[in-house]
Structure prediction request, 555 residues.
Amino acid sequence: MSLELTANERRIAGGADGAAMAMRIVAESAALLGAPRLIPVASAHIDGALYHGDSGTLFAERLVDGGARVAVRATLNVGALDLMGCSRVRLEEPQRSMARRMMDAYRKLGCEQSWTCAPYQAGHRPAFGSDVAWGESNAVVFCNSVLGARTNRYGDFLDIACAISGRAPHYGLHRPENRRATLVFDVSALPPAFMASEIAWPVLGSLYGREVGGSIGVVSGVARDPGEDALKAFGAAAASSGAVGLFHIAGVTPEAPDAETALGGIAPDATIRVTPDMVSAAQARLSTAQGADRIDAVAIGSPHLSLAEFDALERLIADRKLAVPIHACTGRHVLAALDRDGRRKALEALGVMIVADTCVVVTPILPDRSGGVLMTNSGKFAHYAPGNTGYAVLYGSLADCVESAVAGKPLFAGTGR
Amino acid sequence: MSSVRAEILVPGQAGEGRALILSAPISFWGGVDPKSGRIADVRHPECGQGIAGTVLFLPGTIGSSSASAVLMELVHAGHAPAALVLHEPDAILLLGLIVAREMGWQTPVAVRLPRDAFGSFRGKSVRVGADGEVSFSG
Prediction:
């Protein structure tokens, strides 16, 4: 099956400007993937504005110079700098200027200055069943699974090309027949006390991603909707340990009123019966510094913290001074609310370092410390921190993270450790 | 001299180099240093080896959607493989070559061969032609 473009798409691709470049990139990707046609998209979320080297900056500036503008709503994922000035990013020149130029270029293309990996909590929520082009693995999986909008895992540069052309290749998760679950991930054997705990969903997400890889599964045996922040943590962890773009939870997510519907009435290829031992092993795998007797920092907010998560953080700190800093990563949509009531200043006075527009695993913020130990409640931070920051990781609940930050050493309570 | 004709995934320059056959899938973001082309993932079996100038045989890619950005950076900085051999089209990684071509930079050719054919190139010096012909000597 070969790609057929409309007359208008062909005309745009034949030009010499930025719009032509974007259309050619979308069309070549579609041809590579065997997509028969392009489809219109309603919005985009752009992961390509994070600096990895000069080539990405030059590409974005070429689009700007060619007069390109996004044709649909396009929010921006994190960049390499904290433009709000909350935290100090240790990115040196000339990289710092190139990262800044890159962020400027995406602004000039008409993208919204959202700078968050949780755009779905910053007012960007595509309608159920709509086709969109989103990048950033946790945003993709939330968009597909929790909102029921349709996107593939768009790589850097294809996301902005789709936003400019307003088109995406018609393949993969855009097609309803490819959204059916083929595996069952049955959690009914897990104790209700564990399922109600804060660490349940990030730990289960990490296990789920490892078990299903790139397949689509339906989680069964969940008694009640765990809430949006838990689903966010589950998806982010799953998309770090596996190539997960879409999951279903029977009775919770919109394409799974029950497991049979998510399976499309077809018997699953396999059923994974999750045991407490599997969960304990998955939880242990999230830590690389087991037995550490000190911590150097705490990091939370991957994906970016919601206002409700800041409420929980404040309750747990309870006005105590921290012995080691908690890096709390969030977006400017939450920062505005924190600033309004003076909550940000109060948190900072206690030792919380708020990180906005970016996060501690994508750009150098943590002190350069060999043998450092980082504690986190995020399955995604636990996955990427060792490789990207050099810190070993201790995984715990938010309550464990706060108590450890107050004490200046690892403390685990109430989670069976 | 032995040769096989492969399907072209992304057209590019012919290349010649030592075959580097990865024994596990890799995430380019976090797994390959974009400044040098060295494999940096401590959990990867070929950690420490450089992919620059090799004919790189990939058994699959995993992880971040920024793999495209890392490959494009390697192309721009002159640290890309001489050619890439994949068993299936990879939408995210190969995007790095598609965009680099749009930028007018010289990119290596990427071709498709069945995974079970990778082993016969082990230890060889391999040439991949712009027409998709994959050959080796020695």
Summary: Chain A has three domains: 7-176, 180-285, 297-407. The mean pLDDT of chain A is 96.
